[in-house]
Amino acid sequence: MAVKPIVVYPDPILKQVCAPVQAIDDEIKELIEDLVDTMHAGPGSVGVAAPQIGVSRRVCVIDVSKNRHGKENNHGLLLMINPEILAKSGGAVMREGCMSVPDYTGDVERATELTLRFTEPDGNVREFEASGFEAVAIQHEMDHLDGFLFLDRIASLKTGLFRRKSYK
């Protein structure tokens, strides 16, 4: 549908817990299309959550298949409504960036294996396991739905936060 402008920190919507989607109507389907278009337009983006385009709803999209870290292990384009993590395990520290925090990246520890459940735009409930970079990306986008940024997950702002050299 449309590429939407990205909301940038410290906009207060980024710190809000998003409302669950009660019904999948045309408005939600249009939101999902806007999220996909915005993700594809973003430099190196592998996901976008609704609050990042100014909508406080529990919707996000993820696709790590074109990223070098996710090429070999992914579920393709994920259109997630009301996602929830059922289980997680493992752990790794990875460098994360975010379109809503364009000037910085940071080292964040995340689970490396997830069991996830969400509703798809057609109303089907999907449950599956994700691992590696895809699991990290899912957690990053789901954090947006709960009012968290990767900045909130950095163990040490002194040693784990880095000014971005370029945004590609």
Automatic annotation (TrEMBL):
EC number from the UniProt entry: 3.5.1.88
Give a GO biological-process term. translation
What SUPFAM superfamilies does the record point to?
A: Peptide deformylase
Q: What does UniProt list as catalytic?
A: 141
How, per the record, is the cofactor bound? Binds 1 Fe(2+) ion.
Q: Which Pfam families match?
A: Pep_deformylase
For this UniProt record, the keywords arranged alphabetically read as follows: Hydrolase, Iron, Metal-binding, Protein biosynthesis
Which cofactors is this protein said to need? Fe(2+)
Q: Does the keyword Glycosyltransferase apply?
A: no
The cross-references to InterPro entries, in alphabetical order and at most eight, read:
Peptide_deformylase, Peptide_deformylase_sf
Catalyses: N-terminal N-formyl-L-methionyl-[peptide] + H2O = N-terminal L-methionyl-[peptide] + formate
Looking at the record's lineage, which domain of life comes first? Answer: Bacteria
Gene Ontology molecular function terms on file: metal ion binding; peptide deformylase activity
Indicate what this protein is called per its UniProt record. Peptide deformylase
Q: Which family does the similarity line name? A: Belongs to the polypeptide deformylase family.
First-level EC class = hydrolase
